[in-house]
Amino acid sequence: MFIYSGGEPLMRKKDIIALCERHNDCVFLSFTNGTLIDEAFADEMLRVGNFVPAISVEGFEEGTDFRRGQGTFARVKAAMELLHRKKLPFGLSCCYTSQNVEMIGSEEYFDWMVEMGAKFCWIFTYMPVGNGAPTNLIATAEQREFMYRQVRAFRKTKPLFTMDFWNDGEFVGGCIAAGRNYLHINANGDIEPCAFIHYSDSNIKEKTLIEAFQSPLFMAYRAGQPFSDNLLRPCPLLDNPGALAAMVEKSGAHSTDMQFPEDVHDLSEKCREKAEKWKPAADRLWACSHGCAGCTGHEGK
Ligand code: SF4
Asked: What is the Å distance from ligand 1's center to 33 Cα?
């Protein structure tokens, strides 16, 4: 399975369809703002049968247009209606922040996704990646717990397959990066452990994938995974302060940001406070859902 993240991958929609055609034993998924999905492209999707879009939406009209530009929501909605009419499977991709978490986690929003015909929803949380990325958008521990509870509750009641990239760590044995289950290659060819981790010691133009798997950075990941016994704290960046910085330093990996390389220690420090506040909440939820001795009756079990 190959996933395109972007920028906007559908700027290359002809090439993506050509790849779908050539590799018909693979599935291709693209995160997209949905604005380039038109009748002709939907027909191409029907013809090849192995391309699935995950349309990025941040809540309803106000939230989506705030993040992605005026008029985006109306175009996205039209794309979803078109896909639904042609019986093409598609999903949504939602990034929750401290500002929109109540909307993204609301029953109204989940019902709307189902009503639009989405089959699945990827749920991500905001990461302060990049120089100058604001930290006040990181969800608080209370907000992350709210999403944990909402997503699990709606799984029992709504016909929508949800994947929460951080809070579902327990279902995949923790961090899946650095070739354990996946890796990320950026537009420059840098082979990165994860789509959120922009550090690398390998480039696909110089190394094979097998060589990259054996590189110092990937081997450091492999040695460290899982980064916590509590799989509700899977991430070496977001949940385990210092873990990513230590691996990058030890491996000699470099920042792959082509404009403004970010010091890994600065990045780690941006997440420290939220990580420290998430730990007690995550430990309580983990104990409750995995049979804590003397549990006083939290609803996890
Ligand atoms: S590095 Fe963090 S975001 Fe990436 S796969 Fe691991 S846990 Fe998830």
From this structure: 23
* Helix (H) or strand (E) run with residue 267 in it: helix 264-289
Report in angstroms the alpha-carbon separations of 267 from 48, 131, 198, 210, 239: 41, 8, 11, 28, 13
Distance 102 CA to ligand 1 centre (A): 24
Can you tell me which atom of ligand 1 is nearest the CA of 227?
Answer: 7
Q: What is the pLDDT of residues 173-207, one digit of tens each?
A: 999 999 999 999 999 999 999 999 999 999 999 99
Atom of ligand 1 nearest to the CA of 177: 5
> What is the distance in A from the centroid of ligand 1 to the CA of 95?
15
Nearest alpha carbon, ligand 1 atom 2 = 235
> 191 phi and psi, to 5 degrees?
-95, 115
* The token pair that represents 281 in the structure block: 């909440």
For 17-51, write each residue's pLDDT tens digit.
999 999 999 999 999 999 999 999 999 999 999 99
**Which sign, positive or negative, has the C-alpha torsion 218, 223, 225, 227?**
negative
